[in-house]
Amino acid sequence: MSVTRTPAPDWSGRMDPEDGPDAIRLHQLVAPGARRAVIGFACDAGVTRNKGRIGAKQGPAALRQALANLAAPADAELFSDLGDVTVDGDALEAGQETLANAIADALSDHERVVVLGGGHETAFASFRGLRKAHPRARIGILNLDAHLDLRLPSEAGGSSGTPFAQIRDLDPEAFDYLCVGYAEESNTQALLKRAQEWGVKLVRDHELIADPLAANPAITDLIARNDLVYLTIDIDVLSHFQAPGVSAPAARGVPFSTIERIVSLVLKTAADLNTSLPLADLVEVSPAHDRDGVTAKTAAVLARRLLLG
Ligand SMILES: [Mn+2]
After folding, report:
1. Topology of domain 2-308, per CATH?
2. What are the pLDDT digits (tens) for 207-232?
3. Residue 153, pLDDT score
4. pLDDT for position 156
5. Residue 241's CB: how many other CB atoms inside 10 A?
6. Sheet of 2-6: strands edge to edge?
7. CA of 231 to the centre of ligand 1 (A)
8. Which residues keep their CB under 5 angstroms from ion ligand 1?
9. Residue 216 C-alpha to ligand 1 middle, in angstroms?
10. Domain residue spans in the chain?
11. Could you say which residues of the chain have pLDDT below 70?
12. What is the C-alpha to C-alpha distance for residues 135 and 110, in angstroms, rounded to an integer?
C-alpha cells in the first residue's frame, strides 16, 4: 500500500512533416509552464471498494496515448503534463490527499487543470484541491454520469460510488450539485431520495435522448449562480457501444454528440458569464475492458476540448 508521484512520461506519436508546419498533433504541444495542464490519478482502489470491474488504474496511460495522436486545432496553445499520482493497493485516502494537494498547487500555476482518472473517487480529490485553491469561492459541481455517486461511505471508507456524499459532508450548506445523464435503473430509490433531500438537481438520460438541449437551462443556472464550475465526466454516461471500457457499462446511455454539445455549452456559458472553469476530470476509463480503444479515444476527444477549448 503506497502512493507515489510519477513524473510525466515522454509523449510521442505520429508525425507528418511532409504536410508542413500545421500538421501538428497533441503530442507535439506538451511543454512545461503552459496555461493548461493534465495530471493523472492511477488508482483502482475506489472501484475495488465499490465492487466494480477493476482497471481504471491504467486510465491515465490510455488517455495520454489516445490524446497524443489527435490533431491540434488551429492556433493551439501548449499544455503541460504534471505526471501521475499512483495509488498501489488500498491506499485510497492517502492517494486522494496527495492528488488534492497536487491539484491545489497546479491551480496556482495553471489556468485550467484536467485530471485523467482513475475511478470516480477521483472527484473527492479534485473537489478538495479546488476548494483548497479557492477557499471562499462558490463552486458549482456539474457531473455527467449514469450514477449519482451519492452513496454513504462504509466502514472501509469512501469508494468510487461515494464522492459527492463526501464532498457534501465537507460543507453541506455550500453543496451545489447537478447530475446530468443519470439512469433511473442504475440508482436505488434511496439515492434518488437523498438527492432530493440534499437539493441535488437532476437531468435524466431519457430527457437528453428526447431533447439534446434538455439540460441547458439547469447547466446555465448552475454556472450563473457560482464563481467557479467543476466539471466531472464519468465516461459511463455514454452508451455501452461508445464506452465499453468502464466498470459499469450503460444499457442505454446518453449519445456522444449530446455530451460533446454539453461540454461546448459549459465552455461557452462559463466564458460569457465570467464564471471560471479551472478544473475538469474524466473518470472511469478502464482499458482492460475497452474495445479497439474506443472508450479511451472518446474520453480523449472530450479531454482535448477541455484542454484546448
Ligand atoms: Mn460516476
Report:
1. Arginase; Chain A (3.40.800)
2. 999 999 999 999 999 999 999 999 99
3. 97
4. 92
5. 12
6. 2-6, 79-88, 36-42, 112-116, 276-283, 228-234, 139-144, 177-182, 201-204
7. 12
8. 120, 145, 147, 149, 234
9. 21
10. 2-308
11. none
12. 17
